[in-house]
Design a protein that fits this description.
about 475 residues; Methyltransferase, Cobalt-precorrin-4 Transmethylase, Domain 2; 4 domains; 16 helices; about 35% helix
Length: about 475
């Protein structure tokens, strides 16, 4: 992605803008936060509204040397950034690029490791807490929290029946040797201990519960139903799924002589999102739990913990897999609950698109991951009370189609309208969009993304701006 495209997307976990060079300490904090998280670029010469202002060209080499000295003198362990200039729109920008380090954690020398470690949370730099520092130490040793021994529980006192039954149900044997191989148990000084993974799976830790609620309307002001599930991870999975299905609509279709009932949101997509929440949540954070909220317009699944530090949202959408809880993820793979590493988010989006639904939002918001499935709107179509579903992002009447067209099995019409709506929804929160972003949002090939944008320009939904590599699109006014 070129720099203009990067700037158009705004600040993020890996990008920070400064109009002018910040103070020495602010530079060091940003560099440390990037090195401890996913790497990133500090771009000087861009304002908060993503406008390219540029910097003065005088003494640019002296400025680069000064920045290198600031980082070397104030950061530990040593961080070696790449500092360079780029010309954009005939204006000079200074870029300080840092890659994720392998000597974690990095910190300010003047404040020490306990007080001077910073991490990147969303588009901000945050002082790392004690648990964050421990997690960075684990990452340096390439182990996960769920692999570690938990000395608070005795292995002999744990009931592993649910785990044995799960393996038996798919024709696999489970014994103490395999439990050790799967890192659910570990041996130390000839004594066997459970790992955190085993305790999470059995639901023995207090923060492994899941809270579910059905709210009236589109806010949290009034709830209709609520449940808290505190069982083992597999029972929780089934209970969460059943809670959601009990509170969303079932649609009946007659195909030939037979009636087929399907849920308004595909079960496969919902289940995939629930599994992701259970196996990827940050179990080091004992003060929070997974929350599921069902509203009139969305189904919302919130999981504590941002994406793993080593990857970004773009990496995940491109199929890169990085499990925060390696042992738990491997158990789900062993049991066939995960089909293929790195396929989850793409699969969720593809299933929703194939069902004519608006593309779900899957976002990293500060230190949690938020998933929103958009529910279809239900409209009455005749005097007999029969209902038809029109997706909020797929309303044929918006495009001026006749009522006869609505509900017919025209996948092309449904998807194009849904795709156009997704682009317009994105532009509500962002001033412009580029074709590369359309490819990512809709999982399209480059040629199809460009064709779709051209259609929207022809319909006077969008305006095409710029040229060549700098081409972008805005909502038509």
């Amino acid at each position: 992605m070129n720099l203009n495209d990067l700037i158009s997307l705004g600040e993020s976990k890996t990008v920070e803008f400064k109009l002018t060079l910040p103070t020495n300490k602010d530079i060091s904090r940003s560099i440390i936060a990037f090195a401890n998280t996913s790497g990133g670029k500090l771009i000087v010469g861009v304002d908060d509204d993503r406008n390219i202002i540029g910097i003065e060209e005088q003494n640019i080499f002296e400025l680069q040397d000064k920045i290198s000295s600031i980082i070397y003198d104030s950061c530990a362990p040593n961080i070696i950034p790449e500092i360079y200039t780029l010309n954009s729109e005939n204006k000079l920008l200074l870029v300080i690029e840092v890659f994720r380090g392998n000597l974690l954690p990095y910190y300010l020398k003047s404040e020490g490791k306990n007080n001077g470690t910073y991490i990147r949370v969303g588009a901000t730099n945050r002082k790392a807490g004690y648990e964050n520092i421990l997690e960075l130490e684990r990452q340096k040793r390439n182990i996960s929290f769920d692999e570690e021994i938990n000395y608070d529980f005795e292995y002999e006192e744990l009931d592993l029946k649910v785990l044995y039954e799960k393996f038996e149900s798919i024709g696999k044997n489970l014994d103490e040797k395999k439990l050790l191989n799967l890192k659910l148990l570990k041996k130390e000084n000839d004594k066997i201990y459970p790992t955190n993974a085993l305790l999470v799976i059995l639901g023995k830790l207090s923060h492994t519960s899941v809270k579910c609620a059905r709210f009236k309307g589109v806010t949290m002001d009034l709830f209709i139903d609520k449940k808290e599930y505190t069982s083992d991870i597999f029972t929780n999975l089934e209970n969460i799924q059943n809670f959601i299905l009990n509170h969303i609509n079932l649609r009946g279709e007659i195909k030939g002589l037979y009636r087929t009932d399907t849920y308004e949101i595909p079960i496969v997509a919902l289940r995939e999102a629930i599994i992701n929440a259970l196996i990827h949540r940050d179990y080091t954070n004992s003060g929070r739990d997974i929350k599921v909220g069902i509203y009139d317009d969305i189904v919302n699944i919130v999981s504590p913990g941002s994406f793993p530090n080593t990857i970004t949202k773009e990496d995940i959408e491109n199929g890169r897999s990085e499990a925060r809880n390696k042992v738990i993820a491997n158990i789900f793979k062993e049991l066939g609950l995960i089909e293929q590493w790195g396929s989850g988010i793409k699969r969720i989006k593809n299933i929703c698109l194939e069902s004519g639904l608006k593309l779900p939002k899957i976002e990293e918001k500060n230190d949690f991951v938020d998933v929103e499935f958009f529910r279809p709107i239900i409209e009455q179509t005749d005097d007999y009370g029969r209902l038809r579903m029109i997706n909020a992002g797929n309303n044929a009447n918006i495009a001026g189609l006749s009522s006869e067209t609505v509900g017919k099995p025209s996948e092309t019409v449904g998807k194009i309208l849904g795709q156009e709506k997704i682009i317009l929804e994105y532009l509500k929160d962002n001033k412009k969009i580029i074709s590369k972003k359309v490819e990512e949002l809709l999982n399209l090939k480059e040629s199809r993304a460009r064709e779709l944008l051209k259609q929207m320009v022809d319909k006077k939904l969008l305006n095409r701006c710029g040229s060549g590599r700098s081409t972008y699109y805005e909502v038509a006014k």
